[in-house]
Amino acid sequence: MGRGLRLSRSLQLLGAALLATASQVSIAAKDDPAAFEAALLEAVFSDHARYLADLAVAHEHGEGVEREPARAAALYCESARLGNVEAMYSLGWMYANGRGLERNDAYAGTLFAMAAFFGHPQADRMRRYTGDYEGAVPDCLQPPPDESPDPGWSAEAYIAALSVQRQHLARLVVNLSADYAISPRLALAIALTESNLDADAVSSKNAMGVMQLIPDTAARFNVRKPFDPEENIRGGLAYLRWLLAYFRGDIALAAAGYNAGERAVDRYRGVPPYAETQAYVARILAFMQRRKHAYDSRVTEPSPVAPALQLVSERGGGS
């Protein structure tokens, strides 16, 4: 509680400074503390991203500082991660022209696709020279490896608190999750949210079993006996592994895809505006307490709008 109060006080002080310098935080938002804090954080990220992009320009062209293309590229990349569209475009240009970096049209195409998604006027035209987006992402934009995904959380302690009839299925979910490189916590979150660990559950849409597989999904992942607990759980975990690869480890988007289908997430470029799906994603994220998960990029090609979706999600616009 003390840390939260200190953070809130720090944000208030920073907010006052930002407002005094005509920042983008709206004065009206101050009437709603939560909205004010969200707008303030957005302004902080935006201002810092702009500062990094400006510094990158200086290092790229030697304006007032030593000309260091490699340093410029690193600054552009960090700015792009924070959502600066001009930095996305500029880094793409460096890759497309081999300026300070080894030429890489695939990386350039990704960065131009990201910038075009956010409305950059030249980015879409540049994609004609670099080719279509292929899913290649520069290392500097990749999320850091998740070496300790659930510190302090014990699957066994959680299972022990369940009713006796659900403990067997919960352990089955946890044990099988390792076969699919999925966090036991995420596997349990999906199983609990889908059926509350009921192997006989059937929804109004004919979703079946522990992982609530609809017939098309069951067939897609070779589930022939959807009411067999192990086969059903394996099918659900296989689909979840696919979704994590498709959405590049974004738990919110993967959960939205599990509930509403990956095509709906692509169509709305984020969590679809369905009350059920939004509540579903909120429950999964509350259970997980994080947004990122390791994934195997070999499982499938990424969503065609994956880079932009990741940026939207990371900045709070995806849930």
From TrEMBL:
Highest rank taxon of the organism: Bacteria
Keywords for this protein: Signal
Name of one Pfam family that matches: SLT
Signal peptide: 1-28
Domain Transglycosylase SLT positions: 178-270
CDD domains in the cross-refs: LT-like
Keyword Ribonucleoprotein: no
PROSITE patterns linked: TRANSGLYCOSYLASE (PS00922)
InterPro entries named among the record's database cross-references: Lysozyme-like_dom_sf, Sel1-like, TPR-like_helical_dom_sf, Transglyc_AS, Transglycosylase_SLT_dom_1
Protein family membership: Belongs to the transglycosylase Slt family.
Annotated protein name in UniProt: Transglycosylase SLT domain-containing protein
UniProt source species: Aromatoleum petrolei
Lineage start: Bacteria, Pseudomonadati, Pseudomonadota, Betaproteobacteria, Rhodocyclales
